[in-house]
Design goal:
Residues 22-68 form the Myb/SANT-like DNA-binding domain. With 233 residues, the protein is an all-alpha fold. Helices cover 77% and strands 0% of the residues.
């Protein structure tokens, strides 16, 4: 599959960073990521894009060595062209104008340990754990929503009761104020009646005193007259 992909995109086989405006370094990186994904899905090997590029470099190195060996044999025995996988690799290099006559030294990048692929059972367990965690989080969210609704209803009920208590207390205060007002009015009426009675009593007392004074004056006058009359007789 690697060779088939590179036959469709031969410029990926070159080591230069940019070969054309259409095949930039970013585009090459994207294509190597795509082929790495396809190869990893096919298996059994699982490698990073850089390791697959190293694998391609090894294939190029081997093809060039095979070309050099074939050239020496052709000079000695008149052998033919390199075929097989090496021949396809050389064809890809020739299509891009790469020099394929001498095999270059190959310096592979150290292999980076790849994470082990999950076994089906491990994957199934991971899916089960993720599903259980998702369900648990959903249940927790539902429980929080129910708790929030209960708390909201509780606060509304407390506010309603507090408002009703305030209204009842205000009504009691208003009733007490009305009763006190009525009591004050009644007391003022009684006090006014007492004041009127006292005023009438004072008036009556003054009239009696006046009458007594007048009667006393008349009595004294008669007494004086009688005394004068006795003296004359």
């Amino acid at each position: 599959m690697l060779i088939q992909f590179l036959e469709q995109h031969p410029y990926l086989g070159r080591s230069c960073t940019e070969v054309s405006p259409r095949m930039t370094a970013a585009r090459k990186k994207q294509l190597w990521q795509e082929i790495a994904t396809l190869l990893n899905q096919q298996g059994p090997a699982v490698k990073s894009p850089q390791l697959w590029r190293n694998h391609w470099a090894k294939m190029v190195c081997g093809a060039r060595k095979e070309l050099a060996r074939s050239a020496s044999e052709r000079n000695a025995t008149g052998g033919g062209r390199v075929g097989g996988v090496d021949g396809r690799v050389l064809d890809i290099l020739e299509r891009t104008g790469a020099v394929v006559t001498t095999p270059p030294e190959y310096y592979p990048v150290p292999d980076v340990p790849q994470p082990r692929r999950r076994q089906p059972r491990q994957l199934e367990e991971a899916v089960c754990r993720a599903t259980a965690e998702y369900v648990r989080q959903g249940q927790c969210a539902d429980a929080r929503a129910v708790a929030d609704r209960k708390f909201h209803h509780k606060m509304l009920e407390q506010n309603r009761r507090h408002h009703e208590a305030q209204m009842a207390s205000q009504e009691r205060l208003e009733n007490q104020l009305c009763r006190l007002t009525e009591e004050v009015g009644r007391l003022r009426h009684v006090q006014q009646q007492r004041l009127d009675q006292e005023r009438r009593a004072n008036d009556c007392t003054q009239r009696l005193l006046q009458q007594l004074l007048e009667a006393l004056a008349v009595f004294n006058a008669f007494k004086l007259i009688n005394r004068l009359s006795g003296t004359l007789t």
